[in-house]
Amino acid sequence: MITLTAFRWVPDFAQGLVKDLRVRWALEEAGIPYQEKLIGPEDQASAGYRALQPFGQVPVIETDGLKLFESGSIVLHIAEQSQALMPSDPAGRARTRTWVFAALNSIEPSVDNLGDTEGEEAWAVARRPAAMEKVQRRLGELEAWLGDQDYLEGRFTAGDLMMTTVLRNLRETDIVAKRPRLAAYVARCQARPAFQKALADHMRPFEAHAA
pTM for this structure? Predict the structure, then answer.
């Protein structure tokens, strides 16, 4: 069985956003059972964990002697085993991979950069307009591609899974909400039963810690 490493606790602002959620969602969509291994800061710094994840981050999966880190790599590995996440035809598989990389390389860096300017320090205030302009441009391009489609390639794939988790990083803003097509797209993806199950399982350790 797959073992998934995740945090036993994170601050409130990060709950629902830690990247093990991506892997949990992919596993739920694919119908692949797994068990979780929860870790804390002391584990991240250990030699044993660094042998699994050189940077001390989550997620990591271990299965049948295979050890993988980086959420994009793990999601693609899962998707390649499931037509629920990746079509069987070569072109469809290639397009799915393309959208996974687009989420990670064309959208997420801009979103992260905007998040870095949230403070009131002079450098953050100075950088914020340019960071906002970049995010708005990228989201406009994404929205133009999506058009009236339910999903990026017409059917749900791992590309939509990854894109949705990236756009969720803007949940404390109105940036996505002001783009009705994108807002509806994110809501549609989050309404999937596999996402709801993955989110509940992702949040459970944090809720237990709070109690």
Answer: 0.96
